[in-house]
Amino acid sequence: MVPNVSGDLAKYFSPETAQALVTFIEQTVDKRFEQLKKTEIDHKFEVHSLEHKTEYQELKSEITRVEQELKTELAKTKAEIERAFRDILKWIIVLIVGNFVGLVGVLYTIVK
C-alpha cells in the first residue's frame, strides 16, 4: 500500500496509479476549495458593495430631502422678505403722503 491510499483504492489500482489518483483528487479539492474561498470573498465584497450602495442611496435621498426642505424654507423666507418690504414701502408712502398733506395744510393756513 501507498501512504495516503487505503481501502478499495489500494485493491483496484497499482500503488503508483492510486497515489496519482489521490494526488489528483487532493489537487482538485484544493483548487475547488480555493475557488470557493474566492467566491466567498467575492460574495462578501458584493454584499459589502450592496451595503455601501444602499447606504449611498439612503444618503442621497436624505440629501435630496434636506435640499427640498431648504428650497421650501428659502421660498418662505423670500416671500416674508417681499411682504415686509411691501409693508415698509406702504408706510413710507403713507408718511410721505401724510407729510405732504400736512405741508399743504400748513401752507393753506399761512396763505389764508
TrEMBL record:
Parts forming coiled coils: 49-87
Entry keywords, A to Z: Coiled coil, Membrane, Transmembrane, Transmembrane helix
Keyword Coiled coil carried by entry: yes
Source species, domain of life: Bacteria
Transmembrane stretches, start-end: 88-111
Full protein name: DUF1640 domain-containing protein
Lineage: Bacteria, Bacillati, Bacillota, Candidatus Fermentithermobacillia, Candidatus Fermentithermobacillales
